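Record 1 of the preview.
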Amino acid sequence: MTGQDPDATDGSQDPGAPEVTPTPARPAGAFAPPTAEPAATPVNEPGAAPEPLWPVPAAPYDAGEGHGPATVGPGSTAGAAYGPGPYALAAPASRPTSDWPRPRARRVSVGMTAGIAVLALVAGAVGGVAANRIAAEVGMYRPVDAALPESSAATQPAGAIATIAAEAIDSVVSLEVVGDDGVSTGSGVVIRADGYILTNNHVVADASGDDAVTVLMTDGSELPAQVVGRTSDYDLAVVKINATDLTPLVLGDSDEVVVGDPVVAVGAPLGLEGTVTTGIVSALHRPVAAGQTDTAFIDAIQTDAAINPGNSGGPLVNGAGEVVGINSAIAQPPGALQATGSIGLGFAIPSNQARRTAEELIETGSATYPVIGVLLDERYSGEGVQVVSDPLEDQEAVVPDGPADDAGIEPGDVILAIDGRPVTRTDELVVAIRAKAPGDEVTLQVRSGDEESDVVVVLDEAVSE
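->
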């Protein structure tokens, strides 16, 4: 199966955050203004002084520091500082002299006035009847107790999606990477309190320059990051920021994951930080070849949790709040040339693989992967996977003194299964071996001619570039 990096429209670049027009803030209780002022005669004709809201003679008024005293009353111009119009309202005699704003004169159409009057009459009639009935029953104006159930305000139970999200979201960051072709984005997960962050290699692979990677924290701060190490073979990378006392997420045991387990994906799809989606583990051991130039072979966890461009490098979290995978690729319909969005098939690197690789990258700056020392024939069709019969481009079919040679595997042999798991394609065998560690033993079911046998192979080590 071929996966696509969910971070770029061209295989490497993120399309960026969607354009969103923010809604202007309004004070609490405010109504939205009409899109156009009603074309009608205002109630108060310009030039006619309105009646004051309260009867009080004009009096000196202190407009506040820097304004000086002013006379406030009908016809005064002091009110112009707080709104247009030739009118000002008289201040109450009991109100202390302060810089209090005056309401603006409102323009209301005749038709609107009639409508308001009708509504007021209807509401008044209904309200009057209801109020009289309530007053007769309880002696005061308040709602009758209908004994409706009330909220218990209970907290979310352990294992609830909201609980998992709340615990994980502060440990997930967004990454902005400046490359030769522009800026791409991705996600990352804090794995150590002293600033180490795990992400995908394809998120940071195109970084150009020492300050090309920026980490956006959940509190809104932005910190420069340095790439500690990366490997294209596993599509993993570790970056570090200058920070302490971070909250890392635990890398759980991905070998304990079973199909049907609930999972939560956290990340920044399309640059939208702190996005949480949920689903289940829909399959295991999916052989995924991700990438276009540097192909990564992933023995992937498949999930239907929505993963979109920008989610790459973010965690796939289980019900205990532990990371069981690093979201890395999404499937697209046949014929699609670029990642367009989730269709319910996302793929994550198992956490056990991520842990081993991250430890190597932190300690040495590079990673290793296991090999058996054979060349596989891509042209072969049939049961199992065949070792090539003849050398290719000066490479031996079976590496001399390599693991397969030591186990007795010969050119032309067919490998039918690894550790009891049948294989029918070359990438299935490759990802199954890559899921192991150098020095591990695997049992291969091999057919040589007409004979089948189980052979034990001790995996050798190769250094990732």
